[in-house]
Design goal:
Elements: H1 2-28, H2 35-52, H3 57-78, H4 88-110, E1 126-128, E2 133-135, H5 136-158, H6 160-170, H7 172-177, H8 182-204, H9 216-229, H10 234-254, H11 262-273
Antiparallel strand pairs: 1-2
Helix pairs in contact: 1-5, 1-8, 1-9, 1-10, 2-3, 2-4, 2-8, 3-8, 5-6, 9-10, 9-11
Length: 283
Amino acid sequence: MSQLLLGLVNGSFYAILSLGLAVIFGLLNVINFAHGALFMLGAVLSWMAMNHFETNYWVMLAAAPLIVGLLGVFIERFLLRWIYKLDHLYGLLLTLGITLLIEGGFRSVYGVSGLAYDTPEALSGATSLGFMVLPNYRAWVVVASLVVCFATWYAIEKTRLGAYLRAGTENPRLVEAFGVNVPLMITLTYAFGCALAAFAGVLAAPVMQVSPLMGQNLIIVVFAVVVIGGMGSIMGAILTGLGLGVIEGFTKVFYAEASSTVVFAIMVLVLLIRPAGLFGKEK
């Protein structure tokens, strides 16, 4: 049970990161390979604010996603907007280049060694559940991730704004006829996806070692999660991320050596049986 709960913590990171990828791909049709770097950027900005400006964790939980979201506005308006009508490969290569620039810049300043980030005092300590002692901060990660994930799903799938977003990607001219600024809406959508990655980075800072390369360790797994759930499926990204985190923790109990590859084995099986993913729509 302890491994399953810890797996749920990892699954929470998978869910919120894959959600950001699914939002960007599902609404903008862009494979955002820079997502791992933006995740790292959220964590590093939080560490910098704590160590250089004595800014606390709670402020950065809101400020880091805002800063990275503004960076996302710049990326979408001045870079991505030029390649929307081209093949997906161009978006992948462009965002990969952005990743190398961001990671290379921070690596030249901080190196690749981990930077310590203290757990917020309000969330320090642990709670005994009888069968295990659960650190309070890890419980907070699960709760915060679930709230953000399902709030995002509700906003996109159940509100008028979400309907405009979906319609704007399918038929932008028709939506513009109703007075909606579709280019601005697309920019804000990409910025929101980037902000989700940064929010996950701030959550991860006290759990993982903050490092310019920390995003590389997660992004490949997160892409696998998105493929299994179905490219562009919001609910698929959330449920698959949580489920695969639990399966990964369960695997560590019986065969720890396979825990790092079980996600990719599941991805292969899903692609063989259902190429569109578990929650994706067959074309």
